[in-house]
Model the fold of this input.
Amino acid sequence: MITEFGHFALVLAFFVACVQAVVPLVGAYKRWPGWMAVAEPAANVQFLLTAASFAALTYAFVFSDFSVQLVTINSHTDKPLLYKITGVWGNHEGSMLLWVLIVTLFGAFAAWFGGNLPPTLKARVLSVQAMIGVAFFAFILFTSNPFLRMSVPPFDGQDLNPLLQDPGLAFHPPFLYLGYVGLSMTFSFAVAALIEGRVDAAWGRWVRPYTLAAWIFLTVGIGLGSWWAYYELGWGGFWFWDPVENASFMPWLIAVALLHSAIVVEKRESLKSWTVLLAIIAFGFSMVGAFITRSGVITSVHAFATDPERGVFLLLILAVFMIGALALFAARANVLQAKGVFSLASRESMLVANNVLLAVSALVVFVGTMWPLVSEMAFDRKLSVGAPFFNMAFTPFMVVLGLILPVGAMLPWKRANIGRIIRQLRGAFALAVAVGALTFAMQTGRSALGPVGLFLGAWLVSGAAVDLWGRTGRGKNRLGRLARLPRADWGKSIAHAGLGVTFAGVAGILAWETEDIRVLQMGESLDLSGYTVKLDDVRRIQGPNYTAVQADMVLSRDGREISTLQPEKRNYPVARMPTTEAALDIGFWRDIYVVIGDPQDNGGWAVRTYYKPLANWIWGGSILMAIGGAFSLSDRRYRVAAGARKAAPRASGVPAE
Amino acid sequence: MKHLALSLALCLMASPLLALEPDEVLDDPKLEERARDISAGLRCLVCRNESIDESNADLARDLRLLVRERLIAGDSNDEVVQFIVDRYGEYVLLNPRVTGSNLVLWLAGPGMLLIGAGIGWAYLRRRGRAEDDQIDPLDEDEAERLREIMKD
Done:
């Protein structure tokens, strides 16, 4: 009954979205307030209906209603409650429902907090957002219905893929979708502005919080996924350049570019058409991601639905929205006139460079991801494009970006005196060079990766600190002023420093990781980069829905015991799948990572141990970036953007920084 | 009964392999390092985008052993890779070769950077030069308002 209710709510939401996609748009064109006003209640109703539908599916999962096909395929009565809930989106149909729930959530958000938008723009934004909703409601209802019943319900389900039964991966999809779909909001704003024929500083200010929120969620989602891969896959890889990872990385890169170019629109009324184009492309990449994951066109580790019919449908959605939006862009871009004037040495120019680097690097990832497909279809040449290519083709962009970032972040708008900035940054640069040189001297005969990465990390972090300190002016009480700086300034410096920390972490782990693979007899120990790992005990244990072999491995240094690590090798009998659960001793400077393998014929166990320097800096940096974003988002200048409407024509009068 | 079924299922299930088994590791650390380097660049053909170094499939194990065999036989790194490519095709290379149509792939990055930088530069020049004619003259109302302000 509840399942049918959920199904019905979904169909109703589809119809509401249809109405919301047409009526307010016509209303905005004809200037009929009544028709425009339909958008707001419609967005609310659409969200409530979709939420009800999602709740119904969750109910079926939590109470193990095996008459629902999706529950049977993806759940089991013995599964812990947490994974019964997260199992809702651990499959294609349920995750699409989550996707569309977030589409309607963002629409409702624009309705709740869009009070300061001009009525026509608001009606158009909500209408475009509803069009996106219509497309995905139709996709779910016609190709991926989660509410299908079984004619004969089985006694128990087939369990969720054990790899997904993990806290890291359980919350990875919701964050990622909040990010992907958050970009649909900027898309709606861009298309609405094109229809409206008006992009000004106020528009830049309205779009930025949505971009920022989407970007924060994407950062957290990608970070969680990478962290999960690190501890779950059994050898501590954190990024594989897999098509699906690239699918999340491309929107991230474009979102970063968009964030920065929207600042130029907001403060200087330049780069307007470019920003609108980026907003369109960013959501385009989100949909490319959905297509790659769900069509099976490109083989990937975690493609989870490979169905040509769905692929074609998604491709159709992608094509309609991209062709439509880009055609509109081509027709209307000429009305978006740039206003600001600036010289070559200015923050505007540096942000243009930032955008060129980010956009091109995203395109490099895109070309690399699609190349096997293109090559096979166009040249009949079946080949692979993997990590070695991406490392080589992508890394230089990030190095250059890291080099110019601290300078660009400090340059004033319009016209800058580069010499002054260089004088301010001299200390930071010297410190960074010293760190790089020290690293180079300490390591022997290895690649340049480590020193370069640590140099960039130190440069970015100290550059961010100099930037922040420089804003406190001169004279006494600089500390007090530091605490009172606008949150956006803090956010900027924290996020930039976070990028530096991540750079250092990636370089550290890639350059100085050590690995030991061997057979250990019970009670035997091995040496790993100054640490001693002793195999103490191995036993069988029983989990809620798995059995496992668990080892006790004692980690010590200079005879002093640090911790007992308990790696496991699990077997999920229902899903018929084994997983490795590595055990980690997490530290600031390094992780010790141990994995227990198979028993050997001559007694003893296969054991893998890794010493991973700076591993946590990768995710620490990601968290810093997300925190920086949150600081920016909470800046009161965005909360009081309400005043921006009246001031819209002169919003460029906001103090330039 | 349930327990019996469970233990039966456990027995029937092949136990998982680690990617690289201790018995595969070569005694000569130099040679082993070369083997790892080569393995990281070769694709496991039955997997989905994993190198043979990372994969626990049987085929990946066979390929790892083959790589080590060729190394012990005295092949150079390039010869080993060529040996495998001859048998399994270009598809095994995770780093596509810079030949023929692949030039498009390799030149895409630098090419797009040049184009992007060119467009960006042209834009910046235009904005820089636009200086003089950009200051909109005041219209009547604005001029009136300005006069009012200046009177005070």
Q: What stands out?
A: Chain A has two domains: 2-390, 514-615. Chain A touches chain B through 64 residues (CB under 8 Å).
